[in-house]
Amino acid sequence: MNLVVHKFELRQPSEVYIAASRYRKFWCYRKKFYNKISEISHFLHLFRFTQPKKGAREMGGTIFTEINQVLSSFPPFNSFRGGEISATEYQKWVQEDGFGTVEGLNEDKINLSARFPRDKHEFVRMVLSQCRALDIIDDDSYDAKDTDEALGKVEASYEHGKYATYIFPEESALLYAIVRNARPARAVFMGSYYGYWAIAAKAAMPTMDLTLLDINQEVMEVAQKSFGNCGLNVKTKFTVADAEEEVAGIEDIDLLVLDAEGPKSNAIPEDYRDKAIYYPHLKAALNNLKSGALLVAHNVILSNFTGGAYFEEKQRYYRQQYKKFLPLLQENFTYIVLDSTEGTLVARKN
Ligand SMILES: C[S@@+](CC[C@H](N)C(=O)[O-])C[C@H]1O[C@@H](n2cnc3c(N)ncnc32)[C@H](O)[C@@H]1O
C-alpha cells in the first residue's frame, strides 16, 4: 500500500476564516493591530537582532534557530507558535504582510516557518503512530525526555563551521526515534552534508555501523570534527565520494538516508539535477538494502496543508523532481510522506 498522509491541523481553522461577515470587521481590526505591532517590533528588531543574526549566519548553525530568532519579535509568529492562530491563518499573514515586513529572511525561510509543528514531540508521536499503522515501523514508542537529553548533548558539542542546515528539530527527533526503536545495524547517508542529521541517528545507537557519503571534502571535515567532539565517531566512516558509485560497495544496509542534491543547472542531465538525484541514488542502493530495510528522505514536500501559492508551487516542483523516484518507491517500498517542516519520507522495503 502506498500512501501519502497529510498532517491534519490540530486546531480547526479559526472562525475568522469561516467568513461570517460580522467577523470581517474584527479581522480587519486585528490585521491592522498586527501590522502596527509588527512595525514597532520590526523597528526594535533592527536594533536588537540584526547583529547577532548576522554573526550566527557567518558561524553557521540551524536555519530553525535563525528563523526563530528573527520572527520571535513578530506577534503573528508567536500567536501561531502559541496555538492561537492556525497554520493557514499564519501562512496568509506570511504571504500578505510578513514577507514584505520581516527583514533578514528570504522567501523560503519565512514560508517554511508556517510548517513548524506546534510541538515537536507531539508531531513525532503522531507520525510514528502513522508509520506504525502502515507497518513501516514495528515500534512507535517515544520518549520525549530521552530524545531531548540525547539531542541536547549533541547540540551542545556540534560545530557547524560555516555551514547551515535545513534539518528542523522535529526531523532530528523523528530520525532519532526511528533508529532508537528499529536498531539498524548498518546505516548509510547519501549526501550527508556536514552530518547534522546523521548524528541524530548515531546518537540513538552509538554501536551502529554508519557511513557518511558526500562529494564535498570540506563538509566531511566538519562532520568528522563534530562527531569526534560528541564522542560518536566510533564505527563511523566519513567517505568523500560520489554516493551513487560508493553505495554499490556497501552491502546489507538496514537504514538508508537520502539527502543529496545535485546542481540546479540545466546543463546537467535531468536525473542528476537538484533532488531528482534521489532516483539514481536509490536505484544504485536498492539491491544492497536488506528486505525490511528503512529508507528516510529529506525535502519531500507533496502537500500544501497551510494553503497559499508558495507551497502550491513547491509541491508542484517536488512532484516534478520525484517523477522517477516515486514510481521506483511504489514498486519496492511501503511509504509515507510526513509534513515535517521540510517534508520527510519514511519507507520500508518490501
Ligand atoms: C546541501 S546538502 C543537503 C542539506 C540538508 N537537506 C540540510 O539541510 O542539512 C546536499 C549534499 O549533497 C551532496 N551531494 C550532491 N551530490 C552528491 C553525490 N553525487 N554524492 C554524494 N554527495 C552529493 C552535496 O555535496 C551536499 O553536501
UniProtKB/TrEMBL annotation:
Q: Which domain of life is it from?
A: Eukaryota
Q: Which organism is it from?
A: Orbilia ellipsospora
Q: Which InterPro entries match?
A: SAM-dependent_MTases_sf, SAM_O-MeTrfase
**What UniProt keywords apply to this chain's record, in alphabetical order?**
Catecholamine metabolism, Methyltransferase, S-adenosyl-L-methionine, Transferase
| Top EC class of this enzyme | transferase
Under which EC number(s) is this enzyme classified? 2.1.1.6
Keyword S-adenosyl-L-methionine attributed: yes
Protein name, per record? catechol O-methyltransferase
Family, according to the entry, reads as follows: Belongs to the class I-like SAM-binding methyltransferase superfamily. Cation-dependent O-methyltransferase family.
Question: What's a Gene Ontology MF term here?
Answer: O-methyltransferase activity
Q: Name one GO biological process term.
A: catecholamine metabolic process
Q: Does the keyword Manganese apply?
A: no
